[in-house]
Amino acid sequence: MKKLFLSLVAAIVAATATYAQSSMLATLSHEGEISTFYGATALRDAHKAAAHGDIITLSSGSFVAVDITKAITLRGAGFEINTEQQIEPTVITGDFTIRIPNDVTQRLTIEGIYHNHTLYYQNNLKNATFIKNRFKEIDWLNDNSTLKNATFIHCRIADGLILNSNSTASCVNCVIWKPNSYDESSSNFEFQNCVIRGENLYEINSSSFKNCVLITNSNGDYVESSCIAYNCIGIGSNSIFNNMPNQTNRIKGYSEVFKTLKGGTFNDSENFELTDEAKTTLLGIDGTQVGIYGGNMPFDSTPTNPQITKCNVAAKSTADGKLSVDITVNGAE
Question: Among 36, 90, 35, which Cα is nearest to 65's?
Fold first, then answer.
């Protein structure tokens, strides 16, 4: 019985690998078998051993980046520090490129990481999903690089989400600074319940903005007529919605919209919460507040994969062979 309980605890720890610990580790799940890698290069080692469709789970800590050439699911402990649950973020250091062969049918998923360098995409990256991550910049590597049907959910991007020609991205309840389309005629965004700060919003064409807050530092900036915008709030330019025929969009000032955000500089500590009045008066199409806390998927930085926040195992089993195990698991709903 003691061995059974210990095996169970080991399996749970290996599968989540995100509770407070002294060493960094990565676990690789391949066809039901779990392998464990340790240290700053654990991500590199796990990726080298992985196959398309495998799952790599990272603990908190700082890991050396590796170019991702396999359609894996990569899970971290999150991009924020949670002092209440004593969880630190999973940080990936250094630039890296996603370069998956075009004929691979599996989907790439990345969740719960903090990255403060540049993430490049190469080849034809299809149907990739990015959930609850913090990125600095996402950009294309060469002229043939495309990002097709990418989905960003509850992500923060600090310095650019750049689409190459023939690229598409859907952003749901995200904070995105400087989205841009390299080829305005063949690439487009779909933004829903996002906070967006654009340097030149007019360079984004054939895209949609719904229940969003659009910020610009240019008084003459505007949403192009090829786009649509519904129930959005504009800050920084009175002409943002001049090309929009509907009357559902409004111009406001920072203090009328946000509790603490005062300008267009990205700050990791900013939570982009609306004022109490704005939460009840600045509403989206569905009647919930505009911005990242509205809609049917309100922003939540907690990763969806379970996180072990407490794991206490008794030193000895009882006389009848039972072992006391106290585990607390947290995860977003």
Answer: 90
The Cα angle at residue 305 between residues 42 and 177, in degrees rounded to 5: 80
pTM confidence score = 0.87
pLDDT tens digits for range 27-59: 999 999 999 999 999 999 999 999 999 999 999
Residue 319: predicted pLDDT: 75
Residue 315, token pair as written in the block: 């030193």
What 8-state DSSP symbol labels residue 44? Answer: H
Specify the pLDDT at position 313. 58
Domain segments of the chain: what residues? Answer: 2-330
Please say whether the beta carbons of 282 and 258 come within 8 A.
no
Give CA–CA dist 252/257, Å, rounded.
Answer: 7
Positions in the chain whose pLDDT score sits under 50: 1-22, 308-311, 327-329
CA quadruple 113, 208, 241, 233: dihedral, nearest 10: -40
- Name the H helices within the chain: 2-16, 42-49, 254-257, 276-281
What distance in Å separates the CA atoms of residue 214 and residue 223, rounded to the nearest whole number? 9
Residue among 169, 145, 167, 141 nearest 155 (CA): 169
DSSP label of 83: T
Non-local CB neighbours of 182 within 8 Å, separated by 6+ positions: 140, 162, 163, 164, 165
> Which residue, 176, 112, 115, is CA-closest to 332?
112
Please state, rounded to an integer, the average pLDDT across all residues of the chain.
88
Q: Report d(CA 230, CA 278) in Å as an integer.
A: 17
Report the DSSP pairing between strands 325-330 and 307-313. Answer: antiparallel
SS3 203: helix
